[in-house]
Amino acid sequence: MKHHMMKNIKIISRCSTLYLEERLKGSGLSGIQATYIPEIIRSPGINQDQLAQKLHVNKSNVARQLFMLEENDFIERRRCENDRRVMEVFPTEKAIAVEKKIREANSEWRRALFADMTEEERELLEEVLDRLARRAEALG
């Protein structure tokens, strides 16, 4: 039975999250939270709205995940000096220490996912998905 494209994308995304969760057991991170850490490390001081835009999730989900990350000492939130209404997000040493494990788990997932594809198939798929993602961002 063929799945609709969006259903396939959701299946891949959900399975990726579960894979990350399994690989990060014992770290204190969920698969979802693991997607936040590299972005926060790349952009220390990013605010919650910017993070929501970069990760393509709604602001309430970002607030919820950041609360849990802060509770588990992966991030620190501070009020912006220029605008006291804005919360800036910074990685802690704990986040920096776990980033390598996140990168390794993502690389393992990618290798396993593409294992039976040729290089040409992988490149074509990634090119088409990049175009679809850019189009989706423009429409969203």
Structural notes for this entry:
- The protein is mostly helical.
- It has one domain: Orthogonal Bundle (Arc Repressor Mutant, subunit A).
- Helix content is 67%, strand content 9%.
- The protein has helices spanning 5-23, 31-42, 48-55, 59-71, 93-113, 119-139; strands at residues 46-47, 75-79, 87-91.
- It is globular.
- The model has no long low-confidence stretch (mean pLDDT 93).
Which consecutive residue ranges, at least 5 long each, have pLDDT under 50? none
H/E order of the elements?
HHEHHEEHH
Beta-sheet strand percentage?
Answer: 5-15%
CATH topology: Arc Repressor Mutant, subunit A
Class from secondary-structure proportions? mainly alpha
- Spatial strand sequence of the major β-sheet: 1-3-2
Q: Radius of gyration, rounded?
A: 17 Å
Average pLDDT taken over every residue: 93
Major β-sheet, in short?
3 strands, antiparallel
Integer count of domains: 1
* Oligomeric status: single chain
Q: Specify the overall morphology.
A: globular
Number of strands: 3
Q: Count of helical segments?
A: 6
CATH level-two architecture: Orthogonal Bundle
- Give the proportion of residues in helices: 55-70%
State the fourth-level CATH superfamily. Answer: Winged helix-like DNA-binding domain superfamily/Winged helix DNA-binding domain
CATH class annotation: Mainly Alpha
